[in-house]
Design a protein that fits this description.
alpha/beta; Rossmann fold; two-stranded antiparallel ribbon; 6 helices; binds 1-O-pyrophosphono-5-O-phosphono-alpha-D-ribofuranose; binds uracil
Length: 205
């Protein structure tokens, strides 16, 4: 299993403000945008390119363009905030949705929605800000694989060691890109130090 914890002073800065409980939803969403852009660049660093013949204003040249289209699949609801940066960066991205919600007592996620574009032949990035027990991520990866995804990556803002271990066990070939690997889960399966309930902070619920 490949785990990449991205290192950049801006990531450290943004994470600190995301974790700060006094950060209001509007700023929280802006910070999510910024950190997702940095994660998106790292998670797509190895995308294949192919030759393309073009004419510059001065002469013909062989350039290179992306060889394969992308798909981004947010785990609703919190994952929605990570879609826009991918749309900004990549021209031909298609978007699928997997709706999962953790039970407040058991922390086991149940599925309430799924709509996916064709995934075969695309790099599929499953995005969710929080990787806690890993239950939601493992379910989402199961769903996209069943729908034909073969070239996959998981992109999370904050991860717990427990979630990383579960994804590594159930989907060992899927690389994980994250901005932070935190210490542990608490008794209610929240990440420590974490940033609390991401969806609630994002949408002010
Ligand atoms: C949060 C988060 C992940 C999940 C992570 O979503 O966005 O999807 O918990 O936890 P896990 O790794 O233990 O499965 P939540 O279920 O709270 O739903 P929401 O996005 O609608 O707030
Ligand atoms: N989901 C969240 O939003 N936060 C956590 O710490 C764990 C799961």
């Amino acid at each position: 299993m490949a785990l990449t914890v991205i290192q950049h002073p801006l990531v450290t800065h943004v994470l600190t403000h995301l974790r700060d409980k006094t950060t209001k939803p509007a700023l929280f969403r802006t910070l999510c945008d910024q950190i997702t852009l940095l994660l998106a660049l790292e998670a797509t660093r190895d995308l294949a390119t192919e030759e393309k013949m073009i004419d510059t204003p001065l002469e013909p040249m062989i350039g290179r363009v992306l060889a394969k289209p992308l798909a981004v699949v947010p785990i609703l609801r919190a994952g929605l905030v990570m879609v826009e940066p991918f749309l900004d960066l990549f021209p031909d991205v298609s978007v699928g949705y997997v709706g999962l919600e953790r039970d407040h007592i058991t922390a086991i996620a149940h599925s309430y929605y799924c709509k996916l574009p064709p995934l075969d032949g695309r790099r599929v990035l499953v995005v969710d800000p929080m990787l806690a027990t890993g239950g939601s991520a493992v379910q989402a990866l199961d769903v996209v694989k069943t729908a034909g995804a073969k070239d996959l990556a998981l992109v999370c803002i904050v991860s717990a060691p427990e979630g990383v271990a579960l994804v590594a066990q159930r989907h060992p070939e899927v690389p994980i890109f994250t901005a932070a690997l935190d210490r542990e889960l608490n008794a209610k399966k929240y990440i420590l130090p974490g940033l609390g309930d991401f969806g609630d902070r994002l949408y002010g619920t």
